[in-house]
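FAQ: What does a ligand-bound record look like?

Like this one, built around cobalamin:
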Amino acid sequence: MKVVFITPADDIRRSLTYRVGTFLYVRPNAITGPLILGRILKDAGHQVEVYEELSSRVDYAKFQDADVFCIYTMTPNAPRAYFLADQVHQKTSARVLIGGMHASVMPEEAAEHADQVVVGEAEAVILDVVEGRLTDKIVYADCIDDLDSIPFPDYSLLKTPCAEANVLTTRGCPFCCAFCTTSRMYHPFRKRSIESVMEELRYYKSLGFKYMNFEDDNFTADKERAKEICRQMIKEGLVFKGTFFFGRTDMAKDSELMELFEQAHLSCVLVGIESLNQESLDSIHKQQNVADIITFGKASVKHRIALIASIVLGIDTDSAADIQRSVEFAKSINAYTLQPAILTPYPGTETYEQYEREGRIITRDWSLYDMMNVTFIPKKMTPWELQEQFFIASKRFYSFFSSFKIFKAFGAGSGWRRLGLWLFVRLAIIGKRASARFQKDSYMYQLKHMKV
Ligand code: B12
Ligand code: SF4
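The answer part, i.e. the structure of the complex:
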């Protein structure tokens, strides 16, 4: 059978401006799920192709001969996924399967657009679903206990550009922050053997990948294991030009770990600072102290690990001043990038349940759930005031003068990129504020004029 996997991207992320921006700023990569499931199907004799709409325009006219369409969903691209599924049904006789993060928490919704929906990690069921042995409308897949039994993602199936390999050495996270989707979807926390991880790294080296990311939701959950992986990477020369990973601030308590990250070129980390207000950190069950954040700030500078500082905007106990304090902190430690994430009540999370109970969810237009739009009624400000805090945070961090600091700390290339971001952020904010004022059918207008 011919099976086509699609990872959709929403309208904004398929726009020309966004494509030019990402072309200049990020290397294209891919979600690993479809590449793993694709390999399972390919090994069973099926013809498989995988496409990422985020990385390039996909020509759907080519797929008239496909037998099965497999569509991945995360919440912000679910509407696009459903649109594509409806188009496939209208224009071809192919079957449509939907899976991934969003479909796993909203299977009935996804089932309105699909022949079958798979809830959870699909490795153990995908072949039976595609070959017609499992026929339930909604198939519930058990999580995979032995992660070493899962085949490596097959990048030869990917027909859209990709410049970096994504590796998951674990699934899930031992913590359970109130807003987090992944620690719930990939539950319980599981680890692969270090030998299996090394084998995968050898494989990517042999394929010629220059960049490799550890996309574990929390690569530093087990620090001794993270150290051992780095030691083996260094010993075997399995070090890449650059490796991005997700970590927690407590990693900085272990100076040997930070040293090994530097040596193994784990050069860029996304860390959830979230807030400098301890009451707020406790309310989201972050299990993180303000002291950890400060120690981490110093250590990331010392070990020259580029930091993507993620802060959450809109926690019930945070005021506007608290939000801007986090921004100033990120600036003071020369964070490479700031990710100001508006708190988003993703379905399936504790935050969603709480806001739903309290009647605080403003919209269920999932395309707005990308952490850049206010989708709920905050406690300490109006929805529009929170949206404005997002603009102010972005503007303060990506200031004209910050480019010079970045130039000094990370070199000319980074300085120029920051300058480009300064311009991009300003233009984007002008556009959003203009639609809030004049464009009556826009979400920004609705937010600005909302009576709460
Ligand atoms: C790598 C990654 C990216 C990359 C690449 C993604 C891409 N090209 O679109 C980049 C950096 C570009 C990215 C961008 C974004 N991302 Co992202 N990303 C991830 C990350 C870290 C890893 C994905 C992965 O490989 N997972 C591991 C594999 C094993 O799991 P999987 O892919 O989900 O596949 C399994 C199942 O889902 C299922 N399955 C998957 N596909 C299919 C298809 C069918 C038919 C079936 C039956 C089953 C099935 O079986 C698979 C095997 O078990 C995840 C976190 C995570 N742990 O998943 C976030 C994550 C998916 N991203 C997220 C978000 C919000 C975004 C952005 C909106 C961020 C932003 N503000 O710009 C954008 C949107 C991009 C888009 N396409 O529209 C959220 C989604 C939250 C949610 N509930 O929807 C996540 C969960 C992270 C988080 N913060 O919680 N992302
Ligand atoms: S530490 Fe990160 S990955 Fe773990 S539960 Fe919290 S937000 Fe999710």
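Follow-up question: can I read anything off the structure? Yes, for example: The chain has 19 helices and 14 strands.
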